[in-house]
Amino acid sequence: MLGLFKSKKRINKLDEKILRKNNISILLLDERWNAIFRNIEKTEDIKAAETKLKELLKEEARLISERKGMLAKKKENLDRIIHLTPEAYDKNSEPAREEMKRLKTKTKDINRRLENTKIQIENMPSKIREANIKLLECTINSVYFRMRKNRKRLEELEELIETTKNQLGEYIDERERLSGDDTDIYAYFHDLLGGEELEKLDMMHFKT
Hints:
Layout: H1 16-21, H2 31-36, H3 44-90, H4 94-193, H5 195-205
């Protein structure tokens, strides 16, 4: 993982050479990426990068849908022009020629829009890739910062656990010593005074 970064001191820009070798999935669609934030709150940087990527994906989908609609309309216009051709020229119909002219103008406009849309669609993958990498960089910055904090806390917990283990051992030793002492003393007085007298002493000294 650390090989992905140009600097070990600060996680910032990802190494483009390594990124080109790896197929970086769209993070928003990656279940493992989404799972990271089940217990971790997203930073404002992550939210902003996430929103940007969502907008680009929506824009790409919109452009593709728009292009599909324009192609369908263009086909409809061309089919209509073909249908009107005999009437316009064989029958010398002026309304048919006017309609053909109107349809040709619309088709030219569609062609122009198709070309613009094509260029936009072709540019979308690189924009989406950049936004995806930006989101990845923000994620790494946030997650690694949290991991550093977690590591420090884990070290503290390890020390606390070790201290608690030692204290627990001391408590157990003390309990066994006290319990052993009481047992020995109780047995001694039982043998010395007898059970009946010992019960009286119990009632006298352990009465609650």
